[in-house]
Amino acid sequence: MNINATFFAELIAFCIFVFITYRYIWPSMASVLEERRKEIDEGLQAASESKRQLEEAKEESSRVIDAAKSEASTLINQAGSRADQLIDEAKEQAAEEAKKIKDTAESDIAQSTNKAKETLKEELSVLVVAGASKILNKEIDESANKEIVDQLIKEL
Amino acid sequence: MAKEAANNLVETSDYIGHHLVNLTFGWCEKTSSWGFAHHQQDISKSLDSACDVSEMGFWAFHMDTIFMSVFLGVLVFGFFGLINRSAKKGTPGKLQNFVEFVHEFIGSAVSSGYHGTSKIVAPLAFASCLWILSWNLMDLLPVEMANFFGQAGSGINYFKILPTADLNAPLALAAVVMVLVTYFSINTHGLGGFLKELFIIPLGPLEFISFVSKHVALALRLYGNLFAGEMIFILIAIMFGQFFMSFSQTLWFLPGLIMNLAWALFHILIVALQAYIFMMLTIAYLNLASTKH
Predict the structure, then answer these.
(1) Distance between CA atoms of A123 and A120, rounded to whole angstroms?
(2) Distance (Å) from the C-alpha of residue A52 to the closest C-alpha of chain B?
(3) I need a labelling partner for B232 at 20 to 30 A (CA). Which of A80, B174, B186, B257 fits?
């Protein structure tokens, strides 16, 4: 137990070391740590942010795909119905055309029948007149007897 | 036979005494001059110009204690300062990690123990803990080493490499703590409140005694543990010394080896624990001084 002036030397040395620690070592350590803490915090935030963005992008992409799919299916449906429509229209048109052709043909037939009938009547009237004149041996005045002949033809 | 035993005893006490003497530089009354003291067992005591260690008064310096403590302080705080200076912003290196681990460790001890606002407590805890730890670690160096190199090279016969085993050093630390505790107390309670607490409430002057003794105990706890540890190393070293002295003592070699190893391993615990205890008590005292009650 020999206490002597060493005590003061140690006292001064300790004060100096505490001061150095207080002034230089401790704050710089704290600031480095604080900086790192901030950096890590920012990194974590950025990571969660990008994760969120990724999530959003995924959602967006699935939404776009869904939209495209539904559009495609509506297009297919539309195309199908359009085709059906076209077929129906074509059928209708064809039926109409056929009917028209048939009508024309029928009217043609009727016309030619009538024409033939007319012709036949005329020829018949001529024949009748000729026949009658042969029978009577005399010329029948066609214009005089026209009324009778017309009457006859009408009755045919 | 009896004479031989007595001789051995003298040698042993010499050996222990040798290891307990500091390299002292001080004022010598006899010659009215400053100089290095010599020890009574020293061969060179024929020099009349120098005083004995015991003859030197208060104005003497233990050069080994001062040198070792300042050297270790520069080493430790220089290390921390350099690592801090070269600290990079990105991923920390291994040394940087270590420094930050120490910082976190002491910082958490301070923030859990001290609830005041003073910015000096954490640096004080850091400085005291690491400085004491570096001192105490010197205890793990072989006790004979310093003397061996001293005698072989520089002619310095007495050199204690363990500053903690010199009461002056722990007492200086405790004194700084005591001054700070006093300052904190006056800050929180005012001078009147502090004096009242010291001398009147609740047990009168006993409070003053406890105030002083708790700081003295802070120093003595550290000093006593490390001094005793050093002493046991010295005793074990004597056991080794017997091995070289005579062939009949050869049997001491193995127990000596085992004991040295065992005590060194156990002492690692004490070395760290005492530094930690000193730091924690410092924080606790300062916390106590800065809280109103």
Answers:
(1) 5
(2) 26
(3) B174
Counting the structural domains of chain B, the total is: 1
Q: For residue B265, give its domain range.
A: 2-18+64-156+163-289
| Model confidence pLDDT, tens digit, residues A74-116 | 999 999 999 999 999 999 999 999 999 999 999 999 988 888 8
What is the bridge-based pairing of β-strands B24-28 and B33-36?
A: antiparallel
Residue B115 lies in a domain: yes
Closest C-alpha among B110, B111, B123 to residue B80? B123
Cβ-defined contact of A25 to B81 (cutoff 8 Å): yes
Which residue of A15, A21, A35 is the best one to mutate when testing the B interface, meaning the one whose CB has the most B CBs within 10 A? Answer: A21
Q: What does the alpha-carbon distance between residue A29 and residue A23 come to, in Å, rounded to a whole number?
A: 11
**Encoding tokens for residue A5?**
């002036």
Which SS3 state, helix, strand or coil, does residue B182 take? helix
Question: In this structure, are residues B134 and B73 in contact, taking their beta carbons and an 8 Å threshold?
Answer: yes
Alpha helices in chain B (DSSP H): 2-19, 63-85, 94-113, 121-137, 145-149, 168-199, 206-245, 253-289
Is residue B194 situated within a structural domain?
yes
Residues of chain A contacting B58 with CB distance shorter than 8 Å: 3-5
* Calpha distance B27→B284 (Å, rounded): 39
What's the whole-model pTM score?
0.72
The ipTM estimated for the assembled molecules is 0.85
- Mutating which of B20, B76, B84 best tests the A interface, going by the most A Cβ atoms within 10 A? B84
Residue B248 within a domain: yes
Asked whether residue B42 is assigned to any structural domain, the reply reads: no
Over residues A35-46, the pLDDT tens digits come to: 888 989 999 999
